[in-house]
Design a protein that fits this description.
alpha/beta, Rossmann fold, Arc Repressor Mutant, subunit A, 5-stranded parallel sheet, 13 helices, about 60% helix, about 10% strand, transcription
Length: about 280
């Protein structure tokens, strides 16, 4: 049975809609990949590579600030073995030559063809699996020969993945803590702030915390609301903030929707907590 993990993909293109098109174009999981992150330029992508384990980069050549060729030259300084697909709308042989010199595995033209992308992924997935199995085999031989302190490549790879995933969720939680009072807080803008793909963040968040991103945000907001409501009733009715004010303070524009969510979570209305006619069962 193949126990190799999904290979992690970084998509780099200054066109948002093209990135989304590429994400939806193929069945990544079936091909053995997951889109871990996306970036709109080389500078943002380099930050991601410095923080996450990336196996495959799919990048446009023509981008503002730092073009794809310059970007990959910097990538090679950080990770000489990462797989690479260049995608561009320019049918220019000189670009292809430079891409090949930088170790490009494939060079595709826009508009991208689904079959061409899938064929490229199939080839790269086979190469990655072969590489990982070779690393495993070599590490086994080293252990058998007595090199017990030499790190196992497979295990080290998984530990790095888990570490980067945990760090990402820590950043997501910190982002929620800083922005829970904003009614615009969402999975999409959190993922954008962290330079990762929303689907990947959603999956990783559920895996790490046991609850969805939306559930976590709701629990944070309602927990803050409970604290504010309880504080209000201890201060006296005159000085206590109104329900609508507290709702806005925890990210709800609609006080009626806030009350509905609050009652569903705690089994009691905000008004009863606010008035002091409620004893905390916890």
């Amino acid at each position: 049975m193949n126990t190799a993990p999904l290979a992690r993909v970084l998509i780099v293109d200054d066109e948002y809609y093209f990135r989304q098109l590429l994400i939806r174009l193929v069945d990544w999981a079936s091909a053995g990949f997951e889109v871990a992150a996306e970036a709109e330029d080389g500078s943002a992508a380099l930050r991601i590579i410095g923080e996450q384990s990336i196996d495959l980069i799919i990048t446009d050549i023509e981008m503002p600030n730092m073009n794809g060729l310059d970007f990959i030259q910097e990538v090679r300084k950080l990770n000489s073995s990462v797989k690479l697909i260049f995608i561009t709308s320019y049918d220019n042989f000189s670009y292809a030559q430079q891409a090949i010199s930088l170790g490009a595995d494939h060079y595709l033209l826009k508009p991208v063809d689904e079959d061409a992308v899938e064929q490229a992924l199939t080839t790269i997935r086979a190469q990655l699996t072969e590489k990982w199995e070779a690393e495993r085999y070599i590490s086994q031989l080293k252990r058998q020969a007595g090199y017990v302190q030499d790190p196992e490549a497979w295990r080290g790879r998984e530990e790095k993945r888990q570490s980067s995933g945990t760090a990402l969720i820590g950043k997501a939680i910190a982002h929620v803590t800083s922005h829970y009072a904003e009614d615009t807080l969402s999975l999409q803008n959190t993922a954008s702030a962290l330079f990762v793909n929303p689907s990947y963040l959603s999956h990783a968040f559920k895996k790490e915390t046991g609850e969805s991103f939306v559930e976590y945000v709701t629990n944070v907001r309602l927990g803050k609301a409970m604290a504010l409501l309880s504080l209000g009733n201890s201060e006296g009715e005159a000085s206590a903030p109104k329900i609508a004010t507290i709702a806005r303070q925890v990210g709800y524009k609609d006080p009626f929707y806030f009350s509905k969510c609050f009652k569903k979570r705690y089994g009691i209305t905000p008004n009863k907590v606010h008035s002091g006619s409620y004893s905390d069962p916890y």
